[in-house]
UniProtKB/TrEMBL annotation:
InterPro entries: FecR, FecR_C, Ferrdict_sens_TM. Pfam families: FecR, FecR_C. It comes from the Bacteria. It comes from Leeuwenhoekiella aestuarii. This is FecR family protein. Keywords: Membrane, Transmembrane, Transmembrane helix. The chain crosses the membrane at residues 85-108. Residues 314-382 form the Protein FecR C-terminal domain.
Length: 383
C-alpha cells in the first residue's frame, strides 16, 4: 500500500467517509511490524485536539496506542484490531506526513463532538469546587483535594481512597458512571461500592468519627460495607434511607422505575420508611420495594443473584415489560433505543443475557415477538 494511499485512506476515515476496504487496509498496515517505525513518524497530536483533550502529552498517547496494537497482534484478531485501534485513533490522534492537515477540513467534525464523546466514554469525578476529573479505565491517577493533598489513587476501573490522608475535613465529591461502563470505589473506611452504568454517587473523601457514614445514590450499586458498630453506614436513595453496620446488599434506584429495590445478600439492613419513620429489617435473600408514589414498602423472599448478576456482566429479566428492558439494554450497551412499536413496549418477557451483542439480544426477542429494527451507530429504532 503506497504512502499516498495510506494518507488518503486516513483522511477518509477521520472525516467519516472510509469504505470497508479503507478500514481493512489501514488495520493491516498498522499491524505490520515493518510499519512500526513509520507509524511513529506519522503520529502527532494536532494543537486543537490537544486543547479539547486538556493538553495531554503526546508520548503517553503514542505509548497507549502502541500497547493496544501489541496486545491485539498477540491475539491475532484482525476484527478486534480494526475496532479498537481505529476507533481510538479517530478520537485522539491525527496521522500526518510532513506537516499538519488542515484543521478546518479534517478536525472540525471531531472537535464539535469531542466534549460529548468524553462525557460518554469516561467516568467523571466532580469535586466540591466543581472541577471535573476524567478517570480513564486504562490509566492510573493520584487524586488530590483542593489543597493539593493526595487523598486517593485510581488504578484502572477502581478508585481507592486513603484512610490516612491527614486532612482535617472531608470534601464531598460526585462520581458519574456513563452508559456501557462500571466502576468500583473503595472508600476511606474500606467500604467497597461497585457502581453500575448510568449511576451517580455522592460521598465524602473520608468519614469523620463523630458523624454517621453517609452516601447518596442514584442508579444502581452493590455495597460491601466495612463493619463499624459505632458508626452506622447510611445510603440515601431518593427519600428512603438504608442503614447498615457491615453487610453486602444491592440498591437499584434508576429513574424509570416506580420502586426502589434493596436486596440483601449478607448481614442485615434496615430501611427507614419516610412515611411514618418505621424501620423495616431485611434478612439475607430478601428484597424490599419502596414505592415512590405512596411511600409503602413491600418485602419478599428472592434469589439475590438475579439482582446482582449485573456485576458479572449478565442481565436477568423476569416478568419484565419490554420498555423497562430497553432501558437496561441502553445502559449496558451504551445505545439509545427508540420504540415505535407501542404494543411491543407493553409485552412481558423472561430472558437472560451474558456475552451477547446488542444485535444478538434483539434477534432473541424477535423469536418471541415479531418486530423489525434498524441500527444506526448507537441509535436503535424498533418498529
Amino acid at each position: 500500500m503506497s504512502r499516498n494511499s495510506i494518507e488518503n485512506s486516513l483522511i477518509r476515515y477521520l472525516t467519516g467517509q472510509a469504505s470497508e476496504n479503507d478500514v481493512e487496509s489501514l488495520s493491516e498496515w498498522i499491524k505490520d511490524d515493518e510499519n512500526q517505525k513509520m507509524f511513529h513518524d506519522y503520529v502527532k497530536i494536532h494543537f486543537e485536539i490537544s486543547t479539547v483533550l486538556q493538553n495531554e502529552e503526546i508520548a503517553p498517547l503514542k505509548d497507549r496506542l502502541m500497547s493496544k496494537i501489541s496486545e491485539n497482534k498477540k491475539k491475532n484478531s484482525k476484527k478486534i484490531t480494526t475496532k479498537r485501534i481505529l476507533s481510538y485513533a479517530a478520537l485522539v490522534i491525527v496521522f500526518i506526513t510532513g506537516g499538519y492537515f488542515s484543521a478546518t477540513q479534517l478536525l472540525l467534525p471531531l472537535i464539535n463532538n469531542t466534549e460529548q464523546n468524553i462525557q460518554e466514554k469516561f467516568v467523571i469525578l466532580e469535586t466540591e469546587e466543581g472541577d471535573l476529573i476524567k478517570l480513564q479505565p486504562t490509566k492510573e491517577k493520584v487524586i488530590t483535594n483542593a489543597q493539593g493533598n493526595s487523598i486517593g489513587n485510581q488504578k484502572g476501573e477502581k478508585l481507592i481512597y486513603l484512610n490516612d490522608a491527614h486532612v482535617a475535613d472531608p470534601s464531598y465529591v460526585t462520581i458519574r458512571i456513563p452508559y456501557g461502563k462500571k466502576f468500583n470505589i473503595v472508600l476511606a473506611d474500606g467500604t467497597s461500592i461497585y457502581l453500575n452504568s448510568g449511576s451517580t454517587l455522592r460521598y465524602p473523601t473520608f468519614f469523620k468519627k463523630d458523624i454517621p457514614r453517609s452516601v447518596t445514590l442514584t442508579g444502581e450499586a452493590f455495597f460491601e460495607v466495612a463493619e463499624d458498630k459505632t458508626h452506622p453506614f447510611i445510603v440515601e436513595s431518593d427519600a428512603i434511607k438504608i442503614k447498615v453496620l457491615g453487610t453486602k446488599f444491592n440498591v437499584n434506584n434508576y429513574a424509570e422505575n416506580q420502586n426502589i429495590h434493596t436486596v440483601l445478600v449478607e448481614g442485615s439492613v434496615s430501611l427507614l420508611n419516610p412515611k411514618n419513620s418505621d424501620e423495616i429489617l431485611l434478612k439475607p435473600n430478601q428484597k424490599a420495594d419502596w414505592n415512590r408514589k405512596d411511600n409503602t414498602i413491600n418485602v419478599e423472599d428472592v434469589d439475590s443473584y438475579r439482582y446482582t448478576a449485573w456485576m458479572d456482566g449478565k442481565l436477568i429479566f423476569r416478568n419484565a415489560k419490554f420498555n423497562k428492558i430497553s432501558r437496561a439494554l441502553e445502559r449496558k450497551y451504551n445505545v439509545k433505543i427508540e420504540i415505535e412499536n407501542k404494543e411491543l413496549e407493553k409485552e412481558i418477557f423472561d430472558a437472560s443475557f451474558d456475552i451477547e451483542s446488542i444485535r444478538e439480544v434483539l434477534e432473541s426477542f424477535k423469536r418471541s415477538y415479531s418486530f423489525e429494527y434498524k441500527i444506526d451507530k448507537n441509535h436503535i429504532t424498533i418498529y
